[in-house]
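Translate sequence into structure tokens.
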Amino acid sequence: MSDFRFDKIEQEVVLFLADGIVLEGTVFLAPHAYTHAGPQTLLELLREIEPFLPLRDRDGSLRLVNKEAVSHARHAAGSGGDEETASLGEKVAARLFFFGGETLEGTLHVEMPRDRSRLKDFLNAAPDFFPFDSSESHYIINRRLLYQVMPLQA
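Result follows.
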């Protein structure tokens, strides 16, 4: 084990798993991102190649959560990394249906070339995790655990 300790930024999050289990706790973000100035975001953490992420739950227990089992994550505004896409692309209203039975309604930002800017194009080309905003909360969605998406009139 290394004698070096790397400080992390604690981020409160609610993880919704594919089987309906909900985990509330804290994840740990790097103080310096690889791709931009500033700290790592929750979106970047979920997009990392490592399959497990550490979560400290409300009672202080540490667990390792398989990111492939996370259908979506709810986080506080300004803390998830969705700010990077908030001003880009076209806002599209949609209802999302998850394999676990939950649905969410809100908006996502479709940032695609003009000739491939439909919601279908975005969903087929998007990274596994993408930002989504509802009227009450901010989410990061795992597109692999969606079974249906319905476009809505804005």
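Note: The chain has one domain: 8-154.
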